[in-house]
């Protein structure tokens, strides 16, 4: 409990910063919607003039921009990227920060097992991510209601989108953690997270463009593609399963690796 | 108490309760050596010195005790229990002071000590205050702002606040001024009187000599020798210094003499053997001054590392 409390406290500031930044992203997109909505025919024309592959790459092909939900789907990709980086940051740093800053000696010489340490740290990270998500859920629903005008919002796909976020973040949290335990030393967390998130985003974009299922099945941007959820009004279950299995494997492997890890000494 | 301990033979010692039992402990980092096939025991109530130069494997051994790293082969037991399997349980009663002290950014001394105390099943508030005043540590300062020596003090208080049964010190005195070293040694002696066993690693021999009852010398990952400090000094070479005019050094070239040197009128050498023989040799010459003394640990140490 003491580790959880301490870890959560250190995440508090970053959690608030991320929540507010993502809130700003949603606010900006949703306030744009009013302008777009008035000129849907113009928008459709502009979109048609782009090469189809480009639209596919950015997941815009199946979006119906004239509905508020379709438009939210576009904003949602950016929300995903931000939340992905946040989760990957927590994942990469979860146990590696103690080693980068040489505090591992202190923590691991306390009378707690590594499993307990890892579980407490994970719970703290998951709590921080969960609170961010709840904040995003509320912000999204509030803005949809404010900006919808006379439109009716179909609740089901909306909730499907929002409830995909915890699993989406779990992927980056656990994979980040696994990578940090596979390498000898993590020097800096953020470049790694950006690399992982944008890498997997690009993987999905190219995969969609080429059109065949290949490596993009490894990308959570594919598992939880908003355009699919909005269009079919359901999760892409086989893909979601792949994402969940990868997360759980990464989680199990992380526990295994951390339990056997030799902690480097400062001198 | 140290005297009593020193006079006990190893047989008696084995009958005592072992606090640390190390058997055939080996650690390789990939291909590079940490320690190789180390075995020794530390018994309840002693202050055990662990001495060797940098890179000999002192920290490796200690990090194995704390299960910060895992052995390649062999085993270490503390309080009769395997270090790895029962790690969390035995660490409840270990106080560890690492050689380099780093703590969480932005934390105040008091917060860190409270965080540390929260891991133990006792109330440590009183002890924290006692230790802090003894070590002249200001509790309300940020750790980042502290000097190296003051950080070391945080480490000392952190290691002792839960009144552990085993205190593991990895080069603890670096950065402490002489006065603080003195306070620190007194503190360790007091803890020892209270019943704590102390494992003291250092490359500074004089401090080991001051504090420890028994010492293990480690070199290139292997234990060279384990002995009572007093026996180590007694059984070894004596240092002989003779001042005389027209002295022929060749007269002293007998079995057991080493490092024979003559500078001006002073002859000095190490001697191991029958002291009567040496006394007779000296008395046969006309000498103005003569001393026969124990080697300091420093000199014994140099002997092992030549």
Molecular structure report:
The complex is a heterodimer of chains A (267) and B (306). With 267 residues, chain A is an all-alpha fold. Chain A has one domain (2-260). Helices cover 79% and strands 0% of the residues of chain A. Chain A has 11 helices and no strands. Chain A has helices at residues 2-38, 40-49, 52-57, 68-100, 104-108, 114-147, 155-182, 189-210, 220-223, 226-232, 237-260. Chain A is elongated and about 65 Å long. The mean pLDDT of chain A is 87. In chain B, helix 6 runs antiparallel to helix 7 (148-160). Chain B is elongated and about 70 Å long. Chain B starts with a helix and ends with a helix. The model of chain B is unreliable at 1-14 (pLDDT under 50). With 306 residues, chain B is α/β, with parallel strands linked by helices. Chain B folds into 2 domains: 2-233, P-loop containing nucleotide triphosphate hydrolases (Rossmann fold); 236-305, 2-Layer Sandwich (Alpha-Beta Plaits), CATH 3.30.70. Chain B is 34% helix and 29% strand. Chain B has a 6-stranded mixed β-sheet with strand order 6-7-8-3-9-10, sandwiched between helices. Classes of the chains: A mainly alpha (267), B alpha/beta (306).
CATH topology-level name of the largest domain in chain B: Rossmann fold
**Biggest sheet character of chain B:** 6 strands, mixed
Shape of chain A: elongated
Question: Could you give the count of β-strands of chain B?
Answer: 14
- Uncertain segments of chain A are none
Quick check: average pLDDT of chain A? Answer: 87
Instruction: Tell me the name of the CATH homologous superfamily of the largest domain in chain B.
Output: P-loop containing nucleotide triphosphate hydrolases
Structural class of chain A: mainly alpha
Beta content of chain B? 25-35%
């Amino acid at each position: 409990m003491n580790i959880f409390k301490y870890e959560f406290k250190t995440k508090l500031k970053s959690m608030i910063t991320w929540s507010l930044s993502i809130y700003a992203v949603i606010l900006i997109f949703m306030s744009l919607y009013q302008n777009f909505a008035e000129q849907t025919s113009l928008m459709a024309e502009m979109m048609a003039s782009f090469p189809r592959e480009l639209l596919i790459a950015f997941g815009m092909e199946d979006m119906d921009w004239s509905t508020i939900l379709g438009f939210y789907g576009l904003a949602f990709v950016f929300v995903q990227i931000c939340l992905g980086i946040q989760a990957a940051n927590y994942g990469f740093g979860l146990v590696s920060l103690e080693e980068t800053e040489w505090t591992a000696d202190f923590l691991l010489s306390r009378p707690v097992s590594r499993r307990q340490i890892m579980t407490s740290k994970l719970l703290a990270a998951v709590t921080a991510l969960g609170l961010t998500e709840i904040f995003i859920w509320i912000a999204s629903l509030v803005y949809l209601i404010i900006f919808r005008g006379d439109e009716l919002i179909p609740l089901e796909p909306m909730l499907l989108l929002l409830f995909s976020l915890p699993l989406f973040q779990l992927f980056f949290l656990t994979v980040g953690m696994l990578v940090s335990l596979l390498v000898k030393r993590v020097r800096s967390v953020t470049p790694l997270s950006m690399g992982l998130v944008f890498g997997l985003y690009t993987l999905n974009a190219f995969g969609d463009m080429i059109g065949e299922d290949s490596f993009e099945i490894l990308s959570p941007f594919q598992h939880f593609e908003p355009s699919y959820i909005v269009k079919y009004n359901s999760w892409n279950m086989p893909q979601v399963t792949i994402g969940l299995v990868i997360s759980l494997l990464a989680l199990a492997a992380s526990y295994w690796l951390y339990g056997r890890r030799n902690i480097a000494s400062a001198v | 108490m140290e005297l009593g301990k020193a006079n006990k033979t190893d047989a008696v010692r084995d009958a005592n309760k072992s606090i640390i039992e190390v058997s055939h402990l080996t650690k390789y980092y990939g291909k590079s050596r940490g320690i190789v096939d180390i075995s020794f025991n530390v018994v309840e109530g002693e202050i055990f010195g662990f001495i060797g130069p940098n890179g000999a494997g002192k920290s490796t051994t200690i990090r194995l005790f704390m299960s910060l790293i895992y052995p390649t082969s062999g085993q270490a037991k503390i309080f009769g229990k395997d270090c790895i399997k029962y790690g969390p349980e035995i660490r409840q009663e270990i106080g560890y002071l690492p050689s380099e002290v780093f703590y969480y950014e932005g934390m105040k001394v008091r917060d860190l000590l409270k965080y540390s105390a929260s891991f133990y099943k006792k109330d440590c508030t009183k002890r924290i205050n006692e230790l802090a005043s003894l070590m002249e540590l200001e509790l309300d300062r940020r750790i980042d702002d502290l000097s190296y020596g003051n950080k070391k003090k945080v480490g000392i208080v952190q290691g002792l606040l839960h009144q552990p049964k085993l205190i593991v010190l990895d080069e603890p005195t670096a950065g402490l001024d002489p006065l603080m070293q003195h306070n620190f040694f007194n503190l360790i002696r007091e803890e020892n009187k209270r019943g704590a066993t102390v494992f003291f690693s250092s490359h500074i021999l004089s401090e080991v000599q001051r504090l420890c009852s028994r010492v293990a010398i480690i070199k290139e990952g292997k234990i060279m020798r384990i002995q009572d400090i007093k026996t180590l000094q007694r059984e070894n070479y004596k240092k002989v210094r003779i001042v005389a005019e027209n002295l022929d050094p060749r007269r002293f070239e007998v079995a057991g003499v080493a490092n024979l040197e003559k500078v001006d009128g002073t002859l000095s050498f190490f001697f191991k053997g029958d002291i009567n023989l040496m006394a007779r040799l000296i008395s046969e010459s006309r000498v103005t001054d003569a001393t026969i003394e124990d080697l300091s640990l420093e000199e014994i140490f140099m002997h092992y590392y030549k």
